[in-house]
Amino acid sequence: MTGIDVHEMRAQAIEAGRRMQERTDAATREYQRRVGEAQEQWPAALEQLDGVTDPGLRAVLDLHRRERDRVGPGRREGYDCHGCDSCCQSAGWPCSTVETVAGHLGIVLPEFPLYRAEDGSTDAPEVGS
Fold first, then answer.
1. Which of 65, 26, 51, 42 is CA-nearest to residue 123?
2. How far from the centroid of its chain's Cα atoms is residue 62's Cα?
3. Of 64, 65, 83, 116, which has the highest C-beta tally within 10 A?
């Protein structure tokens, strides 16, 4: 007859919990590292976007501009899309239109958005509004 070793089972559960916490901590550190990199990259990316002079692309970027301080009807914290289509009703800034223009011009945008619309928070520092 075999008995259940309660102490062994408890030790295994504790060890499994410790390993899970280590993986969670490592994932958190990696996320924070990537956010830090994005924070460092945003000023240069914004400078490039602000420097676009092509009249058509400038007009598109101006419609999708970031305006941290303007919040009101039809506007979300972080950007103001002047009633554009659904590209501006989701994730944050930059919206998919700005990402498309940036890609067309070879401007590399950081991995994390400058502003997130759902809660108005930011992963990156407030720069160049």
1. 42
2. 21
3. 64
pTM metric for this prediction: 0.62
Question: Using N-to-C axis directions, what is the helix angle for 55-63 and 96-105, rounded to 10°?
Answer: 150
Q: For residue 125, give the amino acid letter.
A: P
Backbone angles phi, psi at 79, to 5 degrees: -160, 165
Position 33, amino acid = R
Please write down the HEC assignment for all residues of the chain.
CCCCCHHHHHHHHHHHHHHHHHHHHHHHHHHHHHHHHHHHHHHHHHHHHHCCCCHHHHHHHHHCECCCCCCCCCCECCEECCCCCHHHCCCEECCHHHHHHHHHHCCCCCCCCCEECCCCCCCCCCCCC
**Contact call for residues 66 and 115 (beta carbons, < 8 A):** yes
What is the band of 62 on the pLDDT scale with cuts at 50, 70, 90? confident
Dihedral (C-alpha) 99, 100, 106, 109: value to the nearest 10 degrees? Answer: 10
- Picking from 39-48, 50-59, 91-100, 106-115, which range would have the lowest pLDDT averaged per residue? 91-100
